[in-house]
Amino acid sequence: MAIGGVVALLSTGCMFEGDDPVEGTAGASATAGDTDPGGTSGDDGTSGATSDTSVSASDSASSTAPTGTETGGTTDTTGEGTTGEEPMSYAPDCEPLDVAFADAMALEVHTVTFDLTHNDGDYAGSGLDNGYIYLVNEVTGDRARIGQVKTKKLVAPVLAGVYSIVYEAAASTMTMPRNASVVLEEGLAVFTDVSRTVDIPSVDVKLTLKLDGKEPTPSPVDSARIFVTQGGPEGERTYIGSTAQSGGKFSAPLVPGDYEVFYESERRGAGLPINALAKIAELTVPPKAGDAYETTAAVKTHALTGAIKFNGVKPPSSSYDHGLIYVRDTMSGAVTAIGDTANGAISGVSVIGGEFTSYELFYAADKISEFAPANRWARLAPGEVPAEMLVDELATLAIETVDVTGAVKVDGADPIEDPNNRGELLVGADEDRAVIGEIAKGIGQTLIKGSYGVYFRHEVSDGGLPVNTFGLLESDGVTDDKVDALAFNVETTLVHGPITVDGAAPPDSVYSDGRLILRRDDDTVYLGNTRHGAFSKRIVRGATYDLYYAVESTDGEVPGNHEVRLASDIKIVGADLMLPIDVPLVHDTSPQITVPEGEDFGGEGRYVLRKIDGSEGPYVGGDEIVVGSTEGTNLDIAVTPGTYLLLYRMETPGVGTPTNEGAALACVVIGEEEG
């Protein structure tokens, strides 16, 4: 089977509707708490009804894949550069593994040759004025490096596909465009060898920055950096200067196109706005090669001043009992500290205003003792606040706090101090978290007034406490009316059972091993490793979890998946829950991929399976497993059943070796019937 035909299918498949094409597996990243915090000894004497739940791949359901940004875009007919939009999320035509590899696949490699010009003319080609040319697949986001701009003539082998031509400046660039990444052209079809001229246009952009009508004064101790993007705050940043050297005058050659201008505080002094990141302007650079384009970014700033009071009282001036006040730019997401409660007031700072900015206001504890609230990220004002209103909001920052007290039981019994069984109670609301007490010592803490859920987090457990990292006890455990003499009971379930791999006993080896983890929202429960053959863990009762598998090491006897969901909707009920876990495995070494006849790659490419899961499309994120390389012919596949993209990725460069970083070769259904 020729790869070129597969690429054509991948480029013209049906629109991806967001349904999980795999019934049974999905991916998620391992998070804190996955390592075993200490062995659990089993039953602690708690009696109760026994439940029995068997877990296999057939119990699982779809999930949302990790998000990502890839380069693609719409057709450019104006000659203006663009970073492009995200690629179309097409669902490829997928075949069972044995059908896709009924015959050996053959890589389809073509040579791309570019003769470069700058503004339709020749250029010096200096190492001090350099950049890079890439091809970016318009469907999958795959990138292939073609070469350095300084060489003028670029030649590179790439796999078949439809690409955008992308320019990326080197740090030393002087007269060539300074763009960190920009699409020059789109729609380049590479299904035969390609040889053509590619022009890199640029315009000298001269930007004047004015803050409240005045240009900043150059200063090494009070400065900000200015950059532009074509993809919002998360886009590739093209820095055009710093006020430390340039004051308010900036100049940079850019590819014509539409840009957003951002301000980034560099050194905090007494004059300039202190925003960590804020959008200040938009500009369109017209396609007039060689001509200068001049524009002004007129920015309004707002000074922030006001007293800080807790329950009407000025906070103590202590670096050991204080918190910080922050604003978060709702457009950029950047967080900026604007004050310290130890100072008793906010003063001497200003932030950027105008149509592109609005803010959220937060408190975060730094060090706490007897006065400062323990909240790690408490919202102080509802919703978004424009800069003008923020000034009024901070004229007097009045923060109401409450003291919460109470006691904790575990399965109805008073806990004892035990170094081998330690845990904490926390409260949570949206992004906010705060520890309110230790299990053995009870509850005693100061919080910002509000409604919170109450959660349990273990530090260490040998069986006496649950092993949750954020187990929910009560969704409204602390409210305005519930702060004194609180009483919480940590009800637990002993969850245990055998572990098998594809229905058989797992290898008892650290070289063929994987972890089993329960997850729910921010809660993670490490169950055990497959090599143990069984597990026993105490878990907070009542919640529903998804079960994940993550490989530690494999020689083909356990799946190589780094993050795959095995099952969903596992309800933790009763005092005792039997939960047999089977990790499904497909191990196949028969599929073959060949390089073009007569080719002897000077480098190496690797073959990777990427799990398709979720609604973001088949080319975004997903668990990846290396299954072979161009140094051999046969693949070595050891994965859980599911639908996967087969990718090629250059590992080491060399003559004839395709430079693609993630070319989609095929979509295969492994271990289950299509559909």
What is this structure's SSE topology?
Blueprint (H helix, E strand, L loop, with lengths): L2 H9 L2 E2 L34 E3 L37 E2 L3 E2 H4 L4 E2 L2 E10 L12 E7 L5 E6 L4 E7 L1 E9 L12 E9 L3 E7 L2 E9 L11 E7 L8 E5 H4 L2 E6 L2 E11 L10 E8 L6 E8 L1 E10 L11 E8 L5 E6 L4 E8 L6 E9 L10 E2 L7 H7 L2 E4 L1 E10 L10 E9 L2 E7 L3 E7 L3 E10 L9 E8 L7 E5 L1 E10 L11 E8 L2 E7 L4 E7 L3 E10 L10 E8 L4 E3 L2 E3 L2 E3 L4 E2 L9 E8 L12 E6 L7 E3 L2 E11 L10 E8 L5
Parallel strand pairs: 2-40, 4-48, 5-43, 6-12, 13-19, 20-26, 27-33, 34-40, 34-41
Antiparallel strand pairs: 1-3, 6-9, 7-8, 7-10, 10-11, 13-16, 14-15, 14-17, 17-18, 20-23, 21-22, 21-24, 24-25, 27-30, 28-29, 28-31, 29-30, 31-32, 34-37, 35-36, 35-38, 38-39, 42-46, 44-45, 44-47, 47-48
Can you offer a commentary on this structure?
- By secondary structure, the protein is mainly β.
- It folds into 6 domains: 3-19 and 587-670; 50-66 and 493-583, Immunoglobulin-like (Sandwich), CATH 2.60.40.1120; 90-99 and 109-200, Immunoglobulin-like (Sandwich); 203-288, Immunoglobulin-like (Sandwich); 312-399, no CATH class; 402-490, Immunoglobulin-like, CATH 2.60.40.
- It contains 4 helices and 48 strands.
- A 7-stranded mixed beta sheet has the order 32-31-28-29-30-27-33, with no helix packed on it. Strands 2, 34, 37, 40 and 41 form a 5-stranded mixed beta sheet that branches. A 5-stranded mixed beta sheet has the order 4-48-47-44-45.
- It is flat.
- The two termini are 22 Å apart.
